[in-house]
């Protein structure tokens, strides 16, 4: 049995991991099928601040808009921002991490840059940059990715360092393999499992960052996200009189973050031979 099949069999045996993966897949399906599931929430309605009912399962907000439709459309934007910011941060982090592990002359400079970035107050800087550039989906993706890659770089570098000392990497240098060929054919496959976990965790953190920025009024005003739902509830004063306006988007954020964490833990356990045997 191949290592990939052994990992999949161990992951499938983990109930929490499989359940969390199914939850994430359902959220992705909701994001894709949002136009088919609910009408885009816009304009005004006559049922203002109505509690959950058969007609409006998640209730309505201060303008009579259906909260369920907001959560469904918010799933699309939140997932897009989380995925796009995660991919961009992973590309930057993996490239710098592999380069730092292979090119030892650059290791000190890259490690110092990572330490400086990790020491910075991330949330205030994200707020400052987003406020200066202007609110939009593109701005949120770039700002979140800009402050998310250092953690990926540190993890990838530590994993790649152990690979650069292995005999087959020295053999690749001896036979005249180019630096790009060695990094792409030997180092990248070795850190691929770390990349998978980093994508999931970075995406969940990106969704949290987007929700925080949107809650502060720095989100895209022309689209819905879970953070914008919370921002509208806070701005209208519905936080104190309409609990449903904040409960359901908050549960969606919590569900995504917890599911992503459990999936990453289950995947790590599945690919670890010692844990897999137990």
Automatic annotation (TrEMBL):
The chain crosses the membrane at residues 20-40, 80-103, 123-149, 187-208, 241-267. GO terms for biological process: peptide transport; protein transport; transmembrane transport. One of its GO terms (cellular component) is plasma membrane. Residues 75-264 form the ABC transmembrane type-1 domain. Its main location: membrane. Keywords: Cell membrane, Membrane, Peptide transport, Protein transport, Transmembrane, Transmembrane helix, Transport. It comes from the Bacteria. The keyword Transmembrane helix applies. Belongs to the binding-protein-dependent transport system permease family. This is Peptide ABC transporter permease. It comes from Devosia epidermidihirudinis. The lineage of its organism: Bacteria, Pseudomonadati, Pseudomonadota, Alphaproteobacteria, Hyphomicrobiales.
